[in-house]
Specification:
Blueprint: H1 18-21, H2 27-36, H3 49-55, H4 63-81, H5 90-96, E1 103-108, E2 114-120, E3 128-134, H6 145-150, E4 152-153, E5 159-160, H7 163-172, E6 175-182, E7 188-198, E8 207-215, H8 243-246, E9 259-260, E10 268-269, E11 279-280, H9 281-284, E12 288-289, E13 292-299
Antiparallel strand pairs: 1-2, 2-3, 3-5, 3-13, 4-5, 6-7, 6-13, 7-8, 9-11, 10-12
Domain Fibrinogen C-terminal: 81-301
GO cellular component, one term: extracellular space
Keywords: Disulfide bond, Membrane, Transmembrane, Transmembrane helix
Length: 301
C-alpha cells in the first residue's frame, strides 16, 4: 500500500537528499564551482579585508588617518552583508551582474535549500533557470518517480532538477517558461509561455501553463496543461494505458502526447518508431527525435 502523501511539511536543509540540493554534483565539480563561479558573483567583491588591514596599523594614527577607519567600521556591516546575498534563481544572479556568462551556479529556492543549476544568461535577455536539459544522450531519463521528484543527472551536462524543487520555486513567485530546441541539422527554435507553475506532490505535480508565444517550434505543450506527472512506476495520466511505459519516458501525459522531452534519446528521424524519442510534435512530428531540448523558467517581469 502506498504511504499517505504529506505535503507542505517543513523540511530542514539537513534532511534533504543530496540529489535535491546538488543534482549530480561531485566533490571535484563542487571545488571547481567554488573556485571559479563564486569569485565571479558580485557578492564576492565584498570583503572586510581592507578593514582588517587598517586595524593592524600602528595605534599612533592622525585624525585624518582615522577617518577612513571610522567609516569602514560604520559601513562594515553593510559591506559584509552583501556577501550573504542568496539568489532565489538565475534571474537574480543576472540582475546582480549582467555580464555573467551561462554556466553552473548555486541558487536558493524559496525555503532556503541550496540548488546547483545551469543558468542560461543568453536566451531572450538571459536569467533563465534550467530545470531540464537534453543535449547528447549521455543520461538515461527512463527513471522512477522518486528520482523525478528529487532530481538526477549532472548540471554540467544532462539533468532534471526535480519536481519538488520546481514546485517550491514556482509557488513563491510567477514564472514564465522557455523551451529551446535543436535538430541534427543545427536549426534552433523555441516555444515560450508567459505563465508556468506546477502543483505539489499531493496534486501529482500538476502542470499549469498558458500564454503561448511561437518561436518557430509551435505549441506542443498546451495539450498537456492540467495533467499530473507520470513515470513508469506512477501512472497518473488520463489514459487507460500507462503512457510513460508506452512512450518510454516521463512527463505530464494526457491520453495522447504532443511533447515527450524526457523520451529515449535517438538520432534524428526514424520511421520505425512513433511517439518514442525526444519529440516536439508541432515542429518535427512523431518520428523525429531532437538533438537537444531544454526547459527553463524566469520570473515574470
Amino acid at each position: 500500500m502506498e504511504p499517505k502523501c504529506r505535503c507542505d511539511v517543513p523540511v530542514s536543509p539537513a534532511d534533504k537528499s543530496p540529489a535535491a540540493a546538488r543534482v549530480g554534483q561531485t566533490e571535484g565539480e563542487a571545488a571547481v564551482w567554488r573556485r571559479h563561479k563564486v569569485s565571479s558573483l558580485p557578492a564576492a567583491e565584498c570583503s572586510d579585508r581592507a578593514t582588517a588591514g587598517f586595524l593592524h596599523k600602528s595605534d599612533t594614527m592622525t585624525v585624518v588617518q582615522l577617518i577612513p577607519v571610522v567609516l569602514l567600521v560604520l559601513l562594515g556591516p553593510v559591506l559584509i552583508s552583501c556577501s550573504t546575498i542568496r539568489p532565489m534563481d538565475c534571474s537574480e544572479i543576472h540582475q546582480q551582474n549582467k555580464t555573467q556568462s551561462s554556466g553552473v551556479y548555486v541558487i536558493y529556492r524559496g525555503d532556503g535549500i541550496p540548488l546547483q543549476v545551469y543558468c542560461d544568461m543568453d536566451s531572450l535577455g538571459g536569467g533563465w533557470t534550467v530545470f531540464q536539459r537534453r543535449m547528447d544522450g549521455s543520461l538515461n531519463f527512463y527513471r522512477p518517480w522518486d528520482q523525478y521528484r528529487n532530481g538526477f543527472g549532472n548540471t554540467f551536462g544532462e539533468y532534471w532538477l526535480g519536481l519538488d524543487n520546481v514546485y517550491v520555486m514556482t509557488k513563491t513567485r510567477k514564472y514564465e517558461l522557455l523551451v529551446d530546441m535543436e535538430d541534427f541539422d543545427g536549426k534552433t527554435v523555441y516555444a515560450r509561455f508567459t505563465s508556468f507553475s506546477i502543483g505539489d506532490e499531493c496534486d501529482g505535480y500538476k502542470l499549469k501553463v498558458s500564454g503561448f508565444i511561437n518561436g518557430g517550434a509551435g505549441d506542443s505543450l498546451s495539450l498537456h496543461n492540467g495533467q499530473k506527472f507520470s513515470t513508469f512506476d506512477k501512472d497518473q495520466d488520463a489514459s487507460g494505458n500507462n503512457m510513460a511505459v508506452l512512450h518510454v519516458g516521463a512527463f505530464w501525459y494526457y491520453n495522447s502526447l504532443y511533447a515527450n522531452p524526457n523520451g529515449v534519446y535517438r538520432w534524428g528521424p526514424d520511421s520505425s518508431h512513433y511517439y518514442i524519442g525526444v519529440e516536439w510534435y508541432t515542429w518535427k512530428g512523431t518520428t523525429y527525435s531532437l538533438k537537444g531540448i531544454s526547459m527553463k523558467i524566469r520570473p515574470v517581469k
